[in-house]
Amino acid sequence: MGVPTVRRRRLGRKLRELRAEATLEEIAEAAKGTFNVSKLSRLEGAKTAAKATDVERLLDLYGSLGRTVSPELRAALLDLTREGAKRGWWQSYRAVLSPVYEDLISLEDEASSVRTWQMGVIPGLLQTGEYARAFMRAISMSDAIEERIDALVEVRLARQAVLTRRDEPLKLWAIIGESALHTRCGEGVMRDQLGRLLSLAQRPNITVQVLPFDASPHVGQMGAYAILGFNNLPDLDVVHVESLTSALYVEDAGQVAVHGAAFEQLQAAALPVDQSAERIAQIRNTHDS
After folding, report:
1. CB of 141 within 8 A of CB of 243?
2. Number of domains comprising the chain
3. Are residue 76 and residue 95 in the same domain, yes or no?
4. What's the pTM?
């Protein structure tokens, strides 16, 4: 059996919340044979992939039991189910992607917003190809990266299509530590990268702030992360945290809320948007052309 994806876990967690205090036996009695409760147990435990028809039956059942199932929540859970069955462009790169990275790409594809804090690196959704290549080489602990790097750079750039998609482009709010802007990556690489930052920041769905060197101690010093949001339904938000050798998802609603509050503190500590653009432009001029 494969490892449950974050999508399955999010769906299962929300179905469990909707079931509330009712036991599986009570649900079976209420369902009157219209739904197999053993399947419900597997769905809640993220042990099996859900079908849209099953989720629709469950939501109808929970509605009849007095649970609050708003049209927005129904649509979000059904989208979550259908997206899980859809083949994404990234699946053709499975030979070079970890399951956690595949999850991230699929979540970005579904998300309506991303709030990301990066202390020492330009966020992946804003990177140029040459910057991405230099950074991947720098953090790889194996020479084998050269066998995969072209494909990984292609993936990095393809992910960015969510920012310009025709229907509801992803809303990105990126806060970047000033140190990331001073990195030396080879001739012209950082100048081009900062130029791309300035260009993308002019889009109405993209906000970029810089947290300056001289900021007071702040919560972002505990590490980088990204919060993926889904159509103003905070119950479905998830936090992505990456380290040198692994990545994980924070899915507990309370912990996700803490990361959201921390991001608000970082917004307040960072330079305003116009001053951030000025700082990026100033630093860009210090890099070789």
Report:
1. no
2. 2
3. no
4. 0.82
